[in-house]
Write a structure and sequence with these properties.
single chain, alpha+beta, Endonuclease III, domain 1, Nucleoside Triphosphate Pyrophosphohydrolase, 2 domains, six-stranded mixed sheet, 14 helices, binds iron/sulfur cluster
Length: about 350
């Protein structure tokens, strides 16, 4: 390519667009590294609008590393409920405890130290270096890649293309301009250079955009191969006894330390069963059709559980303070709204 696809002048144009058009979110108004870390982890797999209220509630409850480190995991998981991918909350909690145990009351500010924290990968470390510590890192997320790919009319994102853009970015962006430059191009990608139907007519980069001039915006980047969804069926049993309900949780795996209902097993008692309405739980590549039955527990002792699961009897008000997978919370709410007769 003869000329650079992004220049100091065109990047200044994007920053100008950002200053006049930027959507203010709670995390774009703060310089606090801890707050920016919480927001970056929340935003990893959650849409921006869904993260605003949980972020504000989290910051009100745990405004710094020290307060998060002293929180119980139960409380942290409950606060995360609804955001999905609870391993992110566990990693935040674990990282806060690690740092406080080492006598650090604030986040480290080198890439090596940041990436050593649970849940912090290349992108998150770059975002913290840029947004919180004003270092010249490139926050190479899907939005930036799409903008850069279109500027170059490159059909695929390759290691060579990435190296080229990292070099160019390092030439154009210094520490003081890092935060605004990254945030400006990211928002441009979200709102103007969208995956489908980009608004090239209002884009400050349209003058040097190869994909636009070659009319290739519809095929660059190439559409993603659709993930093959695996269907599953899970039958859960919601035992009730003397005004309480049996909650169970696995010690390991995707839902570790989150409360669910006990999975049905050959040992599950037969007898009166009351079906609750089915739900579909979609996560990663799975679509899990959940069926739950409400069953009175009359056998004494505790209901059966798979290996490495634990359980406890709780009232509905106690369950309200426990971290659950949100689809199971909905089943719980349905069960309570049915006003089931809890006397067994
Ligand atoms: S001109 Fe269009 S395709 Fe090119 S960067 Fe702007 S919005 Fe994206």
């Amino acid at each position: 390519m003869d000329s650079a696809p992004l220049t100091a002048a065109s990047l200044a144009g994007v920053r100008q667009w950002f200053r006049s058009e930027a959507r203010p979110y709670p995390w774009t108004l703060t310089q606090d590294p801890y707050a920016l870390w919480i927001s970056e982890i929340m935003l990893q797999q959650t849409v921006v609008t869904a993260a605003v209220a949980p972020f504000s509630a989290w910051m009100a409850r745990w405004p710094d590393l020290a307060s998060l480190a002293t929180a119980s995991e139960e409380d942290v998981l409950r606060a995360w409920e609804g955001l999905g991918y609870a391993s992110r909350a566990k990693n935040l909690h674990q990282a806060a405890r690690l740092l406080i145990a080492r006598g650090q009351t604030s986040l480290p500010h080198t890439e090596v130290e940041l990436r050593a924290l649970p849940g912090v990968g290349e992108y998150t470390a770059a975002a913290l270096l840029s947004f919180a510590f004003h270092q010249p890192a490139l926050t190479l997320d899907a939005n930036l890649k799409r903008v850069f790919q279109r500027l170059d009319a490159a059909p695929a994102w390759t290691p060579a293309l990435e190296a080229r853009w990292r070099t160019l970015w390092a030439e154009l962006v210094d520490g003081p301009s890092s935060r605004e430059s990254n945030q400006a191009v990211m928002q441009l990608g979200q709102r103007v250079c969208r995956a489908s139907s980009p608004s090239c007519g209002v884009c400050p980069l349209s003058g040097g955009c190869q994909a636009r001039s070659l009319e290739l915006t519809g095929v660059i980047p190439e559409p993603k191969v659709r993930t093959v969804i695996e269907k599953r069926t899970t039958v859960m049993v919601w035992y009730r006894f003397d005004g309480t309900w049996w909650l169970a949780r696995p010690d390991k795996g995707r839902f570790s330390n989150l409360w669910l209902m006990a999975p049905a097993s050959p040992e599950s008692p037969a007898g009166e069963k009351r079906p609750l309405s089915g739900r579909v739980h979609t996560y990663t590549k799975y679509r899990d059709r959940l069926t739950a039955f409400c069953v009175p527990w009359t056998s004494g002792g505790d209901p059966p559980l798979p290996p490495a699961w634990s359980g406890r009897w709780v009232t509905l008000s106690e369950a309200a303070s426990l971290g659950m997978v949100s689809v199971y919370r909905k089943i719980l709410e349905e069960a309570s709204s049915l006003s089931l007769d809890l006397s067994v």
